[in-house]
Write a structure and sequence with these properties.
Elements: H1 3-19, H2 21-57, E1 63-68, H3 82-91, E2 96-111, E3 114-123, H4 127-130, E4 135-138, H5 143-147, E5 152-155, H6 157-164, E6 173-176, E7 179-187, E8 201-205, H7 206-212, E9 220-225, H8 231-246, E10 252-256, H9 257-300, H10 302-310, H11 315-352, H12 360-386, H13 390-395
Parallel strand pairs: 3-8, 5-7
Antiparallel strand pairs: 1-9, 1-10, 2-3, 2-6, 2-9, 4-7, 5-8, 6-7
Length: 397
């Protein structure tokens, strides 16, 4: 390549862009929006995936969940007895080392004149062996609490702040649906500690919940596999065991945290790619804008092209001049789009409480694609300029 000609083309492109600032800015706008959209959507998508993955990973890679569901259209929720699940745990010690039933719902919590609705969860003491309970002060449910159906509870940070002014409430009481419970522990703050967050939660023994809520059927169970190596085997055995007990392989779901992570990563990866693809369409629209503006630019500079050809410029020189201008416009648009995308992405992520995770390879792909789009859509007007006959061009006004 003749670098002197390339240098000359760069200088002429720079002069043209600076001389038509408004038009150049409008030309780059489509590319800027396209690149920024790709970076924002992929950054937020990756951040959301990482947030969900971190939340699930905190459950532990050995955790297995069993959820009972409706057995067909319009059917009732299938149930399996706690004694059956306890029997499975006892007979399969090489696969699972702990099991806890789980009950969830909502409850009206009251202390003094203040009351609100909170999320209720109920477990066995063995739940502490399955995952981190996140208890900040006090203690979790004990075997004694479960055996005696004790009216004790652990409360979230929102309840501590709203009802007790942030002062440690252990030993004090709250009313759940009108029944008095003693606070034995508090949870660490997990989210934004608002009324609608996971910090507005109460946990009680599952035996108490069965009597308190008049709910005799348990529809969820948590297991802890003996090791990471036997998680898949434990899931397979659990599915076979429940199928045998129910007489059907429908109406329940058995899944490990690892399976959930794989599924979520696959779904979020596909969704992020789709969003990036949709955003990339705006890059193509930006490329069409470059083609239109460059075509207008060629029409306005016909006489300039004629003079250059008359003093010795070849067809390739004219082609290089206009392709260089297209490339500069698209690359500048790409750079501005990258900065805009990162700034807006971080701004949005601050409000939705996730980390903005724009990957370098995606930023590089977005920039290279914008450069390709600029060059590709600049070819037609560049060819039009290059094919002009010098006499016809000089004759033009």
């Amino acid at each position: 390549m003749n670098f002197s000609k390339l240098s000359q083309s760069l200088k002429m492109a720079q002069k043209s862009i600076i001389g038509n600032k408004g038009r150049s800015a409008l030309t780059m706008l489509g590319i800027i929006i396209g690149v920024a959209s790709v970076i924002i959507l992929t950054g937020i998508g990756n951040g959301a995936t990482a947030s969900i993955t971190d939340s699930l990973s905190s459950l532990g890679t050995k955790m297995i969940t069993v959820s009972m569901s409706r057995g067909g259209w319009g059917g009732s929720t299938r149930t399996i007895s706690l004694s059956d699940m306890e029997k499975f745990t006892e007979e399969n010690g090489e696969l699972v080392e702990a099991m806890s039933p789980a009950i969830s719902g909502s409850v009206l919590i009251k202390h003094g004149s203040e009351n609100t609705t909170a999320m209720l969860s109920a477990y066995d003491a063995s739940y502490a062996e399955i995952k981190d309970t996140n208890v900040e002060s006090g203690r979790f449910i004990s075997e004694y609490d479960v055996k005696n159906r004790a009216y004790v509870c652990i409360v979230g940070s929102y309840i501590v702040k709203e009802y007790f002014g942030g002062i440690n409430p252990i030993g004090q009481t709250v009313k759940l649906n009108g029944t008095q419970f003693k606070i034995i522990g508090t949870y660490k703050e997990l989210g934004d500690s608002s009324e609608n967050s996971s910090d507005n939660a109460v946990t009680i023994p599952y035996t108490t919940a069965m009597r308190f809520l008049k709910n005799k059927n348990i529809t969820s169970f948590y297991f802890n596999a003996a090791s990471e190596e036997v998680v898949d085997a434990a899931v397979t055995e659990l599915k076979a065991y429940i199928t045998k007990k129910l007489g059907t392989d429908s109406g329940f779901n058995v899944a490990s945290v690892a399976e959930m992570l794989d599924t979520i990563n696959e779904i979020m990866g596909t969704l992020t790619a789709m969003l990036a693809g949709i955003a990339a369409i705006s890059l193509v629209v930006g490329g069409i804008g470059i083609m239109n503006i460059m075509t207008v630019s060629v029409s306005e500079r016909i006489r300039e092209i004629g003079i250059r050809k008359a003093i010795g410029a070849r067809t390739g020189d004219i082609l290089l001049q206009f392709l260089t201008e297209s490339a500069i416009l698209s690359s500048l648009g790409g750079v501005f789009g990258i900065f805009l995308g990162i700034m807006l992405g971080k701004f949005v992520c601050r409000f939705i409480n996730i980390e903005f995770a724009a990957q370098f390879n995606m930023i590089l792909v977005a920039f290279c694609f914008s450069l390709f789009i600029g060059i590709f859509f600049g070819i037609a007007p560049a060819k039009k300029a290059a094919k002009l006959h010098p006499i016809d061009a000089l004759r033009s006004e």
